[in-house]
Structures are given as C-alpha cells and as structure tokens.
Amino acid sequence: MKKIRIQDMSNHVGETVKLGVWLANKRSSGKIAFLQLRDGSGFVQGVVVKAEVPEEVFVTAKGLHQESSLYVIGEVTKDERSSFGYELQVKEIEVISEANNYPITPKEHGIEFLMDNRHLWLRSRKQHAIMKVRNEIIRATYEFFNENGFTKVDPPILTGSAPEGTSELFHTKYFDQDAYLSQSGQLYMEAAAMALGKVFSFGPTFRAEKSKTRRHLIEFWMIEPEMAFVEHDESLEVQEQYVSYIVQSVLKNCKIELERLGRDTSKLEHIQAPFPRISYDDAIKLLHEKGFDDIEWGEDFGAPHETAIAEHYDKPVFITCYPVGIKPFYMQPHPERDDVVLCADLIAPEGYGEIIGGSERVHDYELMKQRLKEHDLDESAYAWYLDLRQQGSVPHSGFGLGLERTVAWITGAEHVRESIPFPRLLNRLYP
User: Fold this and answer.
1) Separation of alpha carbons 81 and 59, rounded Å
2) What is the CA 58 to chain-centroid distance, rounded?
C-alpha cells in the first residue's frame, strides 16, 4: 500500500492509497460520513459510505473526535466541486491517537484564547494558509537573490553595538561585556558586500519597542540585501523587482491558500515594477491637501499618514529623501541638499504600512566619523565599521524587508501576529 501526502493526490487518481492525517472536522448523515482531513500539506475530504465499508469502519468514522490522528486507506477520485479538486473514498480507518477535548472548535473564539492556544491554532485552515504563503515568500526570496548573483551571508545575532542606537535593544551580558540582540544585520552585511559584491541575509531581529499596533512585533524576520557599487536609484529598482517577484510567485503557487483566505487577488495581480515614487517634501504637501495638518516637515510619518499616502496609489509607493534628522547615521547625504538623505521607505497598499526601508550608505571615512560623533555613538565600538571606509571604500546601498508585514499584506491578515508561527508581543512570551 503506497503511503502518500494530500498534496500528491493528483498523481494517484484511481489508486488506493494510505494517508496519515488528522481529523479537522466532520459531518454525517445516516448513511454517509464526511471527514475533513489534513496532513500538513493540505486538506481533503474523506467520504465514508456505510454500504461500502465494514460496519466497524463506519462506526469508527462517526465516533471520531476533532484532531484525532489516523491512518486512512481509500481510493483517490476527482471532485470538481472543491477547489482542491480531489477527494478520498475511505475504505479503512486506523485510529492512532484520540484527541482529548480539542479546545478550538469550529466557532468564534477571542484572540487572547487563540493566542494562548497558538500551538493548536496553527492547525486551522486560515493559519495553515498564511504559513504556506510565508513559506512561498521565503522560497521565492532565495530564488530571486540566487538568480540575481547574490550570496547569502549570516550576520551575528549577538552584537556589541547598535546600528540605530541602543534605546530599543534587548541588553544582555556577554560574559564581562555588554551585548545586544540584533535589530539589524545591516552593518555586517556592508562588510560582506565589500568581500562578495552582492549579498543578502535572512534572519531574526529584535526591537524592544513598547508598541501594541497591528504592525509591530518584538521578534521578527528580515531580508537584508547589500550591494557594492550600487547607488540609490539602482537599489530602488532591485527593491521593486524583488517585491514584484515574490507577489507574483505567491499568486502562481498559492492559489488555493489565497482563495481559502478570501484574498482579493485582483489587488495583487498588478503589483509589477516599476512602482511610483514621491519625495518626502511632496508627501508632506499631499498630506496637507488631505487634511493632515498635524504633520510638519521634519517629522516622521505615522500609520495614518502612510495609509493616506498609499491610498493615493494602487501599487506600493516609495517615499524618498527623508530629513537627515529622523534617519540613522549611516545614510548618504543628498548630493544637492544637506537637509535630506538618499533613502526610501516602501509603503504597501491597503494600510499595511512600511515593508522596506533602505538607503545608499555613507562611504566617505571623514563623513562617517562626523556622523558617529553627531549621533553620540562610541567610535571605538564602530572601529571595524569605520575601517571599511579606509580599505577600498565604494558607493554601496542596501535595504531591509520585514517578512511579517509583507506576509500580512499579501495574505490580507489583520495583524502581523498571524504572519509568524509564534509571535512575540509586548505582553506575550507564551507559548
């Protein structure tokens, strides 16, 4: 008997196969039991017809509890009524383990209850679909950067300095030294770019930011490319090509998941480079025209401001050239202005906010020394970073994409807590 997974059923139509599954749900009439089965690769309906199986099999089917684990044997048939396209005509059932009062039933539950049971909530159709889309974005990320000549480099998670200051970092002791959980691998990726030309990292980052918004997590994952000999405008082209690539990959490879999530795919289908660009100056003017009189030049944008700007376009939009005073020390000044820097935030449509922050990096030694001083940063802690500007420095650029915000946008999730398997929030470290 061939053991297969649900995702492979299309290759076994008309065959009798064995599946290891969990019972997601069931319903039955007097003569037929419909079992909603899942195995991690997908969901399929198993049909148990009383007249076609031994009596004990039908009795077992009707007595099963939600999330019990089973081996089922049956024939794979086509089912044009379902989005999956196949179902299983069940002939035999072997119960592996009965679930005991599974707490997440097919009804509405409060978010705190679901978060307390996150280890089980992941099994639901919606959460399964979001995790599959997350995986596709990760797969497509590796594919995009590998196909475009990037080398993956892994920066450290424990660092002795902070790229953007220490106020929002988790502090720990590294034996007899101070250390921090990384909020970005960028500085190390700049060093890697000087060795390998075009590099990217993908790993966890941490922000000790006491925020409760639907866009913020304490622990999240970042994709951070850095590119030598690449200036600001060239970097923007890479960013829009990359985002377009992952969106189109999800549309191609996650059709069932997007349908299960009820995602309006028409809003994703036209996400193709190039993306519109608006300067920070013009963004301020646009916001004033829209009635946001509270924002003045020199202030950073909040969620309502980003949403208003995004609504003006039907694609992700770059906001470029922010004031120097609200951006980190490593950003390259504008060649014609001393009050703004060569940077951009990419704002996702539909109110999901910033998904990418990037810039051209300062490559001049004296200017970098000056910037460190202006930001009251200990030059000795950044000696190696400063040294890069003395050893064959070149213009270079990079950016960071927040995976969870991107997953939330593409899937239409209401909160980023649903776009990571086990979210770490301001008041949540369990499970």
Assistant:
1) 27
2) 43
Question: What pLDDT shows up at residue 163?
Answer: 63
* Distance from C-alpha of 327 to C-alpha of 346, rounded to nearest angstrom: 15
How many Å apart are CA 13 and CA 4, to the nearest integer? 12
CA dihedral sign, ordered 267, 270, 272, 276: negative
Q: What type of residue is 283? A: A
Rounded-to-10 torsion of CA 401, 403, 409, 415: -130
pLDDT at 162 over 80: no
CA neighbor of 403 nearest in space, from 121, 126, 142, 41: 142
At 197-246, the pLDDT tens digits run: 999 999 999 999 999 999 999 999 999 999 999 999 999 999 999 999 99
Contacts within 8 Å (CB) and 24+ apart, 262-270: 262/412, 263/410, 263/411, 263/412, 264/412, 267/349, 267/350, 268/410, 270/314, 270/315
CA distance 273 to 281: 23
304 CB-near residues (< 8 Å, 6+ apart): 292
Q: Tell me the pLDDT tens digit for each residue of 296-352.
A: 999 999 999 999 999 999 899 999 999 999 999 999 999 999 999 999 999 999 999
Instruction: Name every residue whose Cβ is closer than 8 Å to that of residue 141 and which is 6 or more positions away in sequence.
Output: 200, 202, 223, 242, 246
Largest Cα–Cα distance of the chain, in whole Å? 85
Confidence at 1, pLDDT banded by 50, 70, 90: confident
Tell me the DSSP string of 79-123.
-TTSSS-EEEEEEEEEEEE---S-S--SS---HHHHHHTHHHHTT
Domains of the chain and any CATH numbers:
2-97 (2.40.50.140), 119-419 (3.30.930.10)
Of the CA atoms within 13 Å of residue 366, those in its CB half-sphere come to 0
257 vs 134: CA distance, rounded Å: 11
Residue 30 pLDDT grade (very low, low, confident, very high; cuts 50, 70, 90): confident
